[in-house]
Amino acid sequence: MVNKLCLGVCDDGSYYTEIAKQVINYYNDSFNKSHSNLRRAYFNNMWRGTATLVAALLLILTLIQAVTSIIDVLPRRK
């Protein structure tokens, strides 16, 4: 009910019209929504954020190690 309270109201004479448009555009941007969800889920405190970064670093290092070991096993052509 509250979200649809001003659905049909159009007021272009307000001093806050430009700010309201910027807020609506910011809210509708999918990057901002994703950024907010990531911050809320993985970086809401220092320890969870640190653990997330360390886990991502370990995953990247594991992938690098796997790729280099596969490259070492492949036969070399001359």
From TrEMBL:
- Give me the segments passing through the membrane: 53-74
- Keywords for the protein's UniProt record, in alphabetical order: Membrane, Transmembrane, Transmembrane helix
Q: Which InterPro entries match?
A: DUF247_pln (IPR004158)
Q: What is the name of this protein? A: Uncharacterized protein
